[in-house]
Amino acid sequence: MSPLTFASIETIPLVLQLAVGLLGLIVSVKGRARGVSGLMVAAFAIMLATTVMGIVWQFLALNVPDWSESGGLSIDGIRWIYLAVGMVFDTAWLLSWLLVAIAVVKSGRTSRQQQGFAPPANYPMGVQPGYPAAQPGYAPQAQPNPPTQQPPS
Question: Which residues in 61-91 are b (16+ Cβ under 10 Å) and which e?
């Protein structure tokens, strides 16, 4: 097999990751309308950019033998290039996952910090003092019977 074939096979997981990242970006952008954190959108955008750069790097790395044969780069120079590219990719991945973690923690914190609880409009309430207990079934009472006032004795 040729190096191009190997590089194409190696990019299959990256293309799948690109599809999943694109789906995640679409869902997170739609979620922004419902109050989802913008950090999640940023995280998916960074993941997508890093994935695209990884695919491009797969095909650029095919020219490494030409770089060394041309005499333009030594083995140490090529190692430095791979080190720099690896550090950029790792930093971008770390940043994207850090943004995901912050967005998840931030979204969980807002629901816990809500003060007070308002039940839905049709939620049955407990018996109020001075009113008779509700009868089982669904028929509502026409008028609640207020407590009768007795004159002081």
Answer: beeeeeeeeeeebeeeeeeeeeeeeeeeeee
CB atoms within 10 A of CB 20: 14
Amino acid, res. 119: P
Count of Cβ atoms closer than 10 Å to residue 113 Cβ: 7
Tokens representing 54 are 């990884």
The total number of residues shown for the chain amounts to 153
DSSP string, 55-100: HHHHHHGGGHHHHHHTTSS-HHHHHHHHHHHHHHHHHHHHHHHHHH
Structure tokens at 87: 């550090």
Q: Higher pLDDT residue, 5 or 129?
A: 5
Question: Mind listing the pLDDT tens digit for each residue in 21-80?
Answer: 899 889 888 887 777 778 888 999 999 999 999 999 988 888 887 877 777 788 888 899
| Helix-strand-coil split of the chain, %, nearest 5 | 65, 0, 35
pLDDT of 141 over the 70 cut: no
Measured from the Cβ of residue 129, the count of other Cβ atoms closer than 10 Å reads 5
Structure token digits, residue 59: 């095909």
